[in-house]
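lol so apparently i was supposed to do this last week
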Amino acid sequence: MDKISRPIIALDFPKRSIAMEFLNKFPKEEKLFVKVGMELFYSEGQRLVEEIKEAGHDIFLDLKCHDIPNTVYSAMRVLGRLGVDLTTVHAAGGKEMMQAAKEGLLDGSGGKNLAKIIAITQLTSTSPEMVKNEQLISASLEESVRNYAKLAQSAGLDGIVCSAHEASDILAATSPEFLRVTPGIRLAGGDVGDQKRVMTPDQAAKNHASGIVVGRAITKAKDPIAAYNLVKQLWEEN
Ligand code: C5P
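anyway here it is w/ cytidine-5'-monophosphate bound
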């Protein structure tokens, strides 16, 4: 199984100075894998991504692109040039859009194919009622997630974002190397916050997650370095 060896830290901060202040707490030689989402990217743009890359960290740029194939191709080409390591698109954009995304990323990186691209299936904020009444999909939410995962795989994507609870189900529907990147991770006894279904890093590993995204359990910890090291240890050992 392809396992993303380091936990991915969600840099859910509103601006550069706070994100850098957080990163500067770590020893210089500690190379991290961080997630930059829409808020931070829309406020700080490419320069911040370049700065984080220059510091030697890997970047998951989570922009959840969803548009016509041609537009997504062009957007992904920009991200390929930027040298991001992992990024996202919505599977609901369709197979052709996902293929275009992959191609754009590859072309942008000059054919080096270093970046991985994973799909959002159904957002975790989407309820079974919304699938039925708003999307008019007659299949269950779980079936829809499985369907989108298989569609993403057939489009040549590298994996999906899913809850750690769904990871073993997705593994059964796809293949071991198809990445299952899971947010909603907490340390035992930690504050659950707005996440409804959480898992600890070791539980996620045992449930066949191939990567974990951890935000507040690290960023809001009294000692973020100690929290990161504990998450890393629990993730690595299992
Ligand atoms: O602070 P916390 O660990 O809950 O942060 C999780 C990160 O993963 C956030 O950046 C959040 O936006 C993201 N995420 C999520 N659930 C999803 C998809 C992404 O929590 N289904």
